[in-house]
Amino acid sequence: MTWRGAPGLLILGVSGLLSFPPSLLATEPPMVAIIIDDMGNSQQYGLQAAALDGPVACSVLPHTPLAGELAEACHREGKEVMLHLPMQAADPAELPGPGALTLQQNRAELLDQLDAAVASVPYASGINNHMGSLLTRHLAQMQWLMSELSARRDLFFVDSFTTPGSVAWRVAAANGLPTARRNVFLDNSAEPEDIRVEIERLKTQARQNGFALAIGHPRAATLSALQVEIPRLQAEGIMLVSVDELIRRSSKEAAPWLVYSSPSPPVSRK
């Protein structure tokens, strides 16, 4: 059974995708959440990300030289801390880094890697995948991961959606895990004008669908653009919220279903 609602407004449950009546979110202003991931290697850009206005999430790579320091800094600034969990990429030349989950691991090995990664990033309240264009396509490994995260009861999962074949967010939802899927990559191009275009696309998706989720990276052009654009959101009638709040507020009217806005076509970022 499906209902026709606003374009791109979907509910995900164990039975699949359903469209969702837009009236349930009509009383809420448009919401956006922004994740800065790939943190853990640059102190300068990591601290700049932590100092951004508003509840921008900081997603930290495990086992990186500055993982603990930057997680602490983000926490002090009142930022949501996330674990940027490395996963195997489709291209063997793309190495996800220490602590990666791979197809070669059995369940016990994969969960040991998860435990070590979580322990290396203090204050983490959520997880999103780093790379993963191979692993996120595989139901068995995603079931191992999501069932374990669901049992912890204190984490959410964001599918970075690095491949159109990803099943990660569907499996997360099927396990009752609070979850969402990336809509916009802010900086596939490092050109400032291209980043501004993506920020405008983020706003447009939020206005059309009620909410949208973006991922960017700790780079000079990205952080400079956000320093300018974040203060403008409120003036334009758009709320910047934490990732956790975006998931909770977008799903509260439809529990036990989860609400999503349709993502843009993914760029296969490894």
Structure description:
The protein contains 8 helices and 12 strands. The protein has a single domain (9-15, 31-261), classed as Alpha-Beta Barrel (TIM Barrel), CATH 3.20.20.370. The strands form 2 sheets. Strands 3, 4, 5, 6, 7, 8, 9, 10 and 11 form a 9-stranded parallel beta sheet that branches. By secondary structure, it is α/β, with parallel strands linked by helices. The longest helix has 18 residues, at 192-209.
Number of domains: 1
Structural class: alpha/beta
Number of DSSP helices? 8
- CATH top level label: Alpha Beta
* Molecular shape: globular
Main pleated sheet:
9 strands, parallel
Q: Report the average pLDDT across residues.
A: 87
Total beta-strand segments = 12
Report the radius of gyration as a whole number of Å: 17 Å
Detail the poorly predicted runs. 1-25, 253-265
* Sequence of secondary-structure elements: EEEHEHEHEHEHEEHEHEHE
Q: What proportion strand?
A: 15-25%
How far is the N terminus from the C terminus?
A: 35 Å
CATH T-level fold name: TIM Barrel
Per CATH, which architecture?
Answer: Alpha-Beta Barrel
**Fourth-level CATH superfamily:** Glycoside hydrolase/deacetylase
Helix content: 25-40%
Core attributes:
270 residues; alpha/beta; TIM Barrel; 3-stranded antiparallel sheet; 8 helices; 12 strands; globular; disordered N terminus
